[in-house]
Amino acid sequence: MTRVTFEADLLPHLSDVLMAGAHADQHLDGREVEAVQKLLKSLIKDADELPDELASRIKEFGNEKFDLKQSIDALGKITAEQRRAVLEMLSKLAEADEEIDMAEDEFLRNVAEAMGSKPEELKGLTVEVELISTTSRRAPPPPSPKK
Fold first, then answer.
1. Does position 133 have pLDDT exceeding 60, yes or no?
2. Distance between CA 42 and CA 36 in Å, rounded?
3. Is 23 within the bounds of a domain?
């Protein structure tokens, strides 16, 4: 994962984005909550536990009140490295319940767009689906001759 630092006052907003990502598939799994906690702890130097304020914010998070634009605006102008780190965290979070859901992928893309990320910043983080037809398409047979 891209190693960056975030100012302490940004962590609550980042926590909201991550928790919304955990809810993206409409099923909150305990492993996802643990992943959010672990990801946030990794951003706090020498932290064994999350600060109480952040732990409470995660516990009390209400997805129905989440506003992506408001949270991204609260993060302010972050660097390209910080944007990449946010996207990487969301990608890791999507894998936490061992199920990749298209809703989680769509959420990651929406966050990237809201942050003003360039398409190349998503490289390796999103699901690419390629549809391949297993049936060949032939022209229909000609109509029967009329008598």
1. no
2. 10
3. yes
Q: Is residue 134 part of a domain?
A: no
Can you give the length of the chain in residues? 147
Q: DSSP alpha helices (H): ranges in 1-146? A: 11-23, 30-41, 52-59, 68-75, 80-95, 102-115
Residue 42 belongs to domain spanning: 8-122
Please say whether the beta carbons of 65 and 143 come within 8 A. no
Q: Residues with Cβ < 8 Å from 117, sequence gap 6 or more? A: 83, 84, 87
Residue 83 is encoded by which pair of tokens?
A: 């944007």
Number of domains in the chain: 1
**CA 111 to chain centroid:** 7
pTM above 0.90, yes or no: no
Cα 117 to Cα 70: distance, rounded to the nearest angstrom: 17
Closest CA relative to residue 39, chosen from 21, 52, 53: 21
